[in-house]
Amino acid sequence: MLGRKAVNRPTIGLALGGGGLRGIVHIGILEVLSKEGIQIDMISGSSMGGLIAGLYGAGLEPSDLDKLALEVKDGKRFDLSLGFIEIIKFLIKSISAKLGPSPKEMPMGLISGNKIKKDLLKETEGKYFNEARIPIAITATNIMSGELVIFIANEFKPDLQHLDDRIFITDQQIATAIRATISIPGLFIPLEVEGHLLVDGGLKNNVPADILDELGVDIKVAIDLGFAIQDDKLIKNPVDLILQSVDIMGQEVSNLILEDYADLIIEPKVEKASLTDIEKIPYLLKTGRQIGYQLVPKIERLIKGGK
User: Residue ranges for motif GXSXG (predicted)?
Assistant: First the structure.
């Protein structure tokens, strides 16, 4: 089913999980796999994993992603963090504007996402899913119906059509899917696409290895960051509280999916990191590389038919 072109070896797919800023480790993993000659044939992702999957699928090399992450640290790109001061400013602005008691007058999130969408369009060169260098699948959640939404190239939709409990969106730009999957409820204003109001994909499927399986990938490798058990010093503000809540909600479903569909599950031990801890990005990149080097021999054994 994996289509595009035949290969004379087992096909390899990566499912990249969400996990807030800790998802930066995916970049280090991709960097090592590329360096060691492990070719990825398909990539799926949710939330931060969907961001990395989308950028990689659009053609950015791991070295480009590494550079991009460091530019985020320096405040030059993708301002995904939202400190406490920004929340206070928002509340003051809301009160000053006298929005009134009607929920219809209140915004559905603190971040519009327009600037991020613009940056994503630039980084992905406006590419659509059918223009990706390898097949990619990015998840989101329909906040109205609770259904899982999968962004994918139209050519793969027939292979997934029997999954009638899911919504498939095709013929969209990769940037649109990324903007949808990173839409943490309460922080980002949900993104409306084809009549669906979309938020973070991690709510329904945080590590989408099952999609790789449905599309006929031979070796499904799942990178599951799980949720980090926090202490009261790490829950610093409402942003951290929301992120931790989202991670916890998606974890049980992810565990069930991975048990059934993943051939190799990697659960990295990553230092706790709030979304605002961007100074930890170099550490997260380094940790990802370390994980990548541990992962390479395991994938090679699976390619050779071992366990």
Answer: 45-49
3-class SS of residue 38: coil
Residue 116 CA: distances (Å) to CA of 137, 163, 201: 20, 31, 17
Residues shown for the chain: 307
| Active site members | 47, 200
- Pairwise CA distance, residues 41 & 2, whole Å: 8
Which pTM does this prediction carry?
Answer: 0.84
160 beta partners: none
List of residues 6+ apart from 254 with CB closer than 8 A: 17, 205, 206, 207, 224, 226
CATH node for 12-98+106-304? 3.40.1090.10
Identify the CA nearest to 138 among candidates 86, 175, 111, 177.
177
Q: Answer positive or negative: Cα dihedral of 276, 280, 286, 291.
A: negative
Beta bridge partners of 219: 12
Domain boundaries, the chain: 12-98+106-304
Provide long-range contacts, Cβ within 8 A and 24+ apart, for 157-160. Answer: 159/1, 159/214, 159/215, 159/216, 160/211, 160/214, 160/215
Per-residue pLDDT of the chain (307 residues; tens, 9 = 90+): 555 555 688 999 999 998 888 999 999 999 999 999 999 999 999 999 999 999 999 999 999 999 999 887 766 555 544 444 454 455 445 545 544 555 455 566 667 778 888 889 999 999 999 999 999 999 999 998 889 999 999 999 888 878 777 899 998 999 999 999 998 887 788 999 999 999 998 888 899 999 999 999 999 999 998 765 555 555 555 556 666 666 666 566 666 677 889 999 999 888 777 767 788 899 999 999 999 999 999 999 999 885 5
305: exposed, middle or buried (Cβ count in 10 Å: 0-12, 13-18, 19+): exposed
